[in-house]
Amino acid sequence: MAADARPSFGIMTPPMNIGYDDIVRVWREADAIPAIEHAWLFDHLMPIGGDPDGPIFEGWTLLAALAAQTSRLRLGLMVTSNRFRPPAVLAKIATTVDIVSGGRLDFGIGAGSRPSMPAARREYAAHGLPYHDAESAVGNLAEACTIVRRLWTEDAPFDFDGTYHHLEGAFGNPKPVQRPGPPIVIGGRAIATLRVVAEHADVWNIPGGDIADAIDRSAMLDRFCAEIGRDPAAITRSIFLPVSLDRPQSTRDAVAEALDAGFTHIVLGLGAPYVDGLVRQVTDEIIGEHAAS
User: Cα 174–69–187 angle (5° rounding)?
Assistant: First the structure.
């Protein structure tokens, strides 16, 4: 994305230790506020914060419900764990959500939880899911992106014989509303993941952290794009920033730094409880003048 592109702002509501009605209320409020252009869930099967045994909703199922409850917001998971679902199944799920939403899906995907997050690692064993090494996870992600895109676009069945995935007679019908498919949003900061971003992503999201590191990773992505002959400006730069309404100036400063660094797709992380008027408060106190720019 060009450095002078108009910024867009969205919210992320982790669907853990919270009720369904509360999430619906927040998303409906966001849907009515033009300054909020996108909304996100995350993709975990067990809580990674708060009560570790508390309630948590499955991301794609909940996203479909929220797609039917809203009319304007672009929506997605920030980001899908590619470790959870086979890519052909995931392509079908995503197509369904894109159709339910009337073509508002942004398809977020990543390699899966990092080994450094034990709260997230436990969900794999708890659900009988394998957890392979990082090299396998990234290679698997690259193949998954190829498979998903082909299922969204190809008009005849095809076979796929990769290192990690093998499909016979794969075919996607119906196709997504968006053609050639929903934008692919890849999340992550690892060098190997950035190479996958350069090849496959329309949007790259980095999960917050030090802005200097984000700038370095963005420059690295530019180099990887150049190596394969892709225009780096074709990939929108996105960043996740947690919101502090107790210290709104700190969040405003983080937003300003991110925009100055070329991260024009801002995802504001909200924490429970979701009080009435929360999204309006975030819009007024955090986004402020940026919403009108």
Answer: 65
Give, as one character, the DSSP assignment of residue 59. H
Give the pair of three-digit tokens for residue 174. 């119906």
Q: Mark 84-108 as b/e (b = at least 16 C-beta within 10 Å).
A: bbebbebbbbbbbbbbbbeebbbbb
Alpha carbon 12 to chain centroid distance? 9
DSSP for residue 286 = I
Q: Which tokens go with 182?
A: 């929903």
- Closest by Cα among 106, 108, 113 to 37: 106
On whether the CB atoms of residues 125 and 154 are closer than 8 A, the answer is no
The strand ranges marked E within the chain are 8-12, 36-41, 74-77, 80-81, 107-110, 158-161, 166-170, 184-187, 203-206, 236-242, 265-269
**In CATH terms, is domain 24-292 a member of 3.20.20.30?**
yes
Which 3 state secondary structure label does DSSP give 111?
coil
Per-residue confidence at 3, pLDDT binned at 50, 70, 90? Answer: very low
Q: What 3-state class would DSSP assign to 188?
A: coil
**Per the confidence metrics, is the pTM higher than 0.85?**
yes
Place of tokens 């968006």: 178
The span from the CA of 38 to the CA of 126, in Å, is 31
Q: What is the chain's Cα-based Rg?
A: 18
Q: Which of 130, 81, 109 is nearest to 182 (CA)?
A: 109
- Give the number of other Cβ atoms within 10 Å of residue 116's Cβ: 7
Beta bridge partners of 236: 203
Sign of the C-alpha dihedral computed for residues 204, 7, 254 and 118 taken in this order: negative
Q: What is the pLDDT of residue 291?
A: 66
- The interaxial angle of helices 59-69 and 20-31, nearest 10 deg, is 50
pLDDT in tens, 24-70: 999 999 999 999 999 999 999 999 999 999 999 999 999 999 999 99
Handedness of CA 239, 89, 133, 199 (dihedral sign): negative
